[in-house]
Amino acid sequence: MHWLALILSGTLEAVWATALAASDGFRRPRPTALFGGALVLSMVGLAWAMTALPAGTAYAVWVGIGAVGTVLLAVARREERLGFARAALLLVLVACVAGLKAVA
Fold first, then answer.
1. Residue 80 CA: distances (Å) to CA of 1, 67, 95, 97
2. How far is CA 97 from the centre of its chain?
3. How far apart are alpha carbons 67 and 71 in whole angstroms?
4. Mapping DSSP to helix (H, G, I), strand (E, B) and coil, where does residue 81 land?
5. Of 10, 55, 77, 103, which has fewest CB within 10 angstroms of its CB?
6. pLDDT per residue over 48-99, tens digit each?
7. Under 8 Å CB-to-CB from 53, ≥6 apart: which residues?
8. What gap in Å lies between CA 56 and CA 24, rounded to an integer?
9. With contact defined as beta carbons under 8 Å apart, do 16 and 38 qualify?
10. Number of separate domains in the chain
11. What pTM, to 2 d.p., does this model score?
């Protein structure tokens, strides 16, 4: 159950990072509100996951999910391009996150 909370929290990290960029320096209310809500929920989930998982592993997995998710959201929104090298590096990052989960 803690791993599921961690995965959801990492996903929310991608949401708040994307909303932060879309908020235009907190000048746009809807993305700003989405940023605040997703940030709080993401942190609460991470904190709860860390009650049962090693802090270093939990944080690394959370950041990895958030980083990959943020890039994929930017690609889906056509704000960034996903070339071969970038895709390969994201796959390596996903493999590292999966490896951390496997050995935890």
1. 34, 14, 22, 23
2. 12
3. 6
4. coil
5. 103
6. 999 999 998 899 999 999 999 999 999 999 999 999 999 999 999 999 888 8
7. 2, 3, 6, 104
8. 32
9. yes
10. 1
11. 0.88
